[in-house]
Amino acid sequence: MNNENTNQYENLYILINQTWLGINSVVRKALKNAGLTHINPAYIGILLCLWREYGLEESLAKLGTVDGMKIIDLGRCAGLEPSSMTGLIDRMERAGLVKREDDIHDRRVCRICLTQKGLSIRSDVIKIVYNVMQNSFSEVDKKSYDNFIRVLYTILDKTSKKRE
Q1: 36 vs 112, 120, 152, 162, CA distance in Å?
Q2: Which end of the chain has a smaller Cβ tally under 10 Å, C or N?
Q3: Do the Cβ atoms of 114 and 54 come closer than 8 Å?
Q4: How many angstroms separate the Cα of 160 from the Cα of each of 52, 77, 147, 164?
Q5: Minimal CA–CA distance to 54: which of 40, 39, 74?
Q6: Helical packing angle, 3-33 and 41-53, nearest 10°
Q7: Nearest to 119, CA basis, from 73, 63, 79
Q8: Tens digit of pLDDT at every position of the chain (164 positions)
Q9: Which residues fall within 8 angstroms of residue 99, CB to CB, at 6 or more apart?
Q10: Distance (Å, rounded) from C-alpha 89 to C-alpha 126?
Q11: CA–CA gap between residue 163 and residue 160 (Å, rounded)
Q12: For the chain, what are the domain ranges?
């Protein structure tokens, strides 16, 4: 690989990383302004997966399963490495958002379940994420946005296969 290509990908990596850090910073500030100081942006991926697992579809206003998720499945859903999950779940548990429960079918397994507090913040957090993402992409036309989403899914598919 020549130096020009190396620099191009180094710059791309930095750009992607800075973009993610920028979005996280704006989300963190919005959470703080909403009085949700106990919510770290790192928790949001896990919460989104649990809210989906619980069947919390705002348009349907229904409550699905309340069995929670195995920590390994939750990590896969949120795109997090297993080594990151224990500490993150510990912090979320201390914040009162989730709790660990024994799996009734397999006592070797622990399931991560939402608490009432974890359930009750859904609407506020979703609104914040929506507003931040909408504002972040406000100057991007629909065609570029759609292409961007396709590119992200292509990259995710390729990189997910390498993690397995």
Answers
A1: 21, 12, 29, 36
A2: C
A3: yes
A4: 21, 11, 20, 7
A5: 74
A6: 80
A7: 63
A8: 566 677 888 889 999 999 999 999 999 999 999 999 999 999 999 999 999 877 755 444 344 445 789 898 899 889 888 888 999 999 999 999 999 998 888 888 889 999 999 999 999 999 999 999 999 999 999 999 999 999 999 998 888 765 55
A9: 93, 112, 113, 115
A10: 20
A11: 5
A12: 40-120
Q: What is the pTM of this model?
A: 0.82
What are the C-alpha distances in Å from 83 to residues 47, 111, 164? 18, 16, 15
Q: Which two tokens stand for residue 134?
A: 């909408």
Q: Please report which residue ranges of 34-121 form alpha helices under DSSP H.
A: 41-53, 71-78, 82-94, 116-120
Amino acid type, 115:
T
Asked if CATH classification 3.30.470.20 holds for the domain at 40-120, the reply, yes or no, is no
| Rounded (5°) CA angle 88-80-103 | 65
State how far the alpha carbon of 65 is from the alpha carbons of 45, 114, 163, in Å.
19, 11, 29
Report how far apart, in Å, the C-alpha atoms of 155 and of each of 151, 158, 161 are: 6, 5, 10
Which of 129, 107, 99, 106 lies closest to 36 in space, CA to CA?
A: 129
